[in-house]
Amino acid sequence: xxxxxxxxxxxxxxxxxxxxxxxxxxxxxxxxxxxxxxxxxxxxxxxxxxxxxxxxxxxxxxxxxxxxxxxxxxxxxxxxxxxxxxxxxxxxxxxxxxxxxxxxxxxxxxxxxxxxxxxxxxxxxxxxxxxxxxxxxxxxxxxxxxxxxxxxxxxxxxxxxxxxxxxxxxxxxxxxxxxxxxxxxxxxxxxxxxxxxxxxxxxxxxxxxxxxxxxxxxxxxxxxxxxxxxxxxxxxxxxxxxxxxxxxxxxxxxxxxxxxxxxxxxxxxxxxxxxxxxxxxxxxxxxxxxxxxxxxxxxxxxxxxxxxxxxxxxxxxxxxxxxxxxxxxxxxxxxxxxxxxxxxxxxxxxxxxxxxxxxxxx
Length: 362
Known about the structure:
The protein is α/β, with parallel strands linked by helices.
């Protein structure tokens, strides 16, 4: 029997959750499911959906407007959906349940699970959990947080992220103004406070006094971009720091890096770590959130407190001075990706949850 699945995400960027939605929709369509994606607008994600011939509608409902509630309700009632898979949105889950549609929510971080401006009012998480049939999280850390909030363990499943095992075709160093002798540190992610780029820059500043040939490549866009660029100019390190916007073919950049740094103040399980590991790049990540689900300290990489910029700097310096040790870490990380974090494993586990929820409701 064919089922219809609606995917919902409030972001139009092609980031971690959007990549996962694309993978799931592709696999489900091959199995004969009918799929549609609601995305907040046209962008790289919608282009990817078009390429994969997955139906989508660009909609951005603002929940403080009554007419948007009416429109969204009408849309949900216009077709029979067997389940909705969404990227944490409690108000939309309430609307789905009002239409009798089972809801599966993918939760990346506990804070995003709360309603903006409401914070974490007592009982608010448990109340809205009634409108979700099942929660999926890619992080053991987030799974623990959800259970602490009072959500039954029977409604929570840990499904680690999975990525495409692609052959890396690197860019030339010269294309970015880099030379062969440069020690290249890369960091990829939205330029937002939570991602900790200011901490990375604060650690990199004294590093280049010790290693003048060190270079830092920051790939991403966001609200902190102007602030970070201004700080770099004020410190007079423009020649050592390169800012690049979001790159669609990100796999072409990882092999350029001698080290990938993820300095996030909060994190779930970043696809960046998996992708970099797949390309053989050594990993240095913050010890926050779910990073240790993948990076095992002094085995498949190094974990540090990102707020301790001296420790962060020392770890980067250690990678430069002890390349063979870090190469061993990188090899272990690559094996972990290939054995446990493939898109096939992720899709199989997630679809099992979707089918279980559908079976329980029909």
